[in-house]
Amino acid sequence: MIKKIFKFYALNMRLLYRPIDGFHRMKFEKEGTLRMAFLNFLLVCVSYAFFNQFTSILVNQDHPHWSNSLWDTITIFAVLVLFCISNWAVTSLTDGEGKFKEIFMTVCYAMTPLVLILIPATLFSNVITMQETGFFNLLVGIGIGWFVLLVFIGLIVIHNYGVFKAVATVIFTFVALMIILFLITLFFSLIQQLYVFINSIYREVTFRM
Questions:
Q1: What does each C-alpha distance from 137 to 50, 58, 67, 122 come to in angstroms?
Q2: Can you list the pairs that 82-87 forms with residues at least 24 positions away whose Cβ atoms lie under 8 Å?
Q3: Residue pLDDT, tens place only, 182-209
Q4: For the whole model, what pTM was predicted?
Q5: Does residue 104 contact residue 155 with C-beta atoms inside 8 Å?
Q6: Which of 53, 105, 133, 209 has the least CB density, counted as fewest CB within 10 Å?
Q7: Residues 83, 170: contact at Cβ < 8 Å?
């Protein structure tokens, strides 16, 4: 059973200690699958929901009833898709070789450290004292830092970039992401104002009739 699980999760585990080789296998040897990438994303969402609900009050001041796991999942997925769209748009203009599917799979596979760390960190938070919360923050920080590093390495491999070009591309990706978020916000604001305008006209007409 353990061997079957390890075989199923083999590429994810390889990325933890040999990320360049792992992403190379994913892109050129087609070892990764979109289904497995999406499964990894769902595991992160489950781990994050567990993290939000059950971390100790020493490190999480938010009340568990305030969190909404479904809304958190939708938010994470929306940010993930927007990041992939932004990166694809930027790299299409800078001779990047990665496709949208490969960018999405890269980010999802890079989430493996979060899958492995969030639940143990949650359990650890319930057995520590106030003086030991620094170890909890360090553990979570390692998971996040590891995830960011894997995403960066993955983007280098799938786009066939050098380090400096990859850094510049990531910066422009976040700029593009901010622009997209601004346009989305502006669009919904205009829709809301249009609705208010039409509703006010409708009320005025019905009142006069």
A1: 17, 11, 20, 11
A2: 82/177, 82/180, 82/181, 83/107, 83/173, 83/177, 85/180, 86/173, 86/174, 86/176, 86/177, 86/180, 87/155, 87/169, 87/170, 87/173, 87/176
A3: 999 999 889 988 888 887 887 777 766 6
A4: 0.86
A5: no
A6: 209
A7: no
Nearest to 46 by CA among 79, 73, 76: 73
d(CA 121, CA 153): 25
pLDDT at 58 over 90: no
Residue 21's CB is within 10 A of a number of other CB atoms, namely 12
61 φ, ψ (degrees, to nearest 5): -85, -10
49 neighbors 118 (Cβ within 8 angstroms): no
The dihedrals phi and psi of 95, each to the nearest 5 degrees, come to: 60, 30
What is the average pLDDT value for the chain, to the nearest integer? 87
As given in the structure block, the two tokens for residue 155 are 């983007």
- DSSP, residue by residue, 48-83: HHHHHHHS-TTT--S-GGG--HHHHHHHHHHHHHHH
Residue whose structure tokens are 């949650």: 122
93-129 as b/e, with b when 16 or more CB fall inside 10 Å?
eeebebeeebbbbbbbbbbbbbbbbbbebbebbeeee
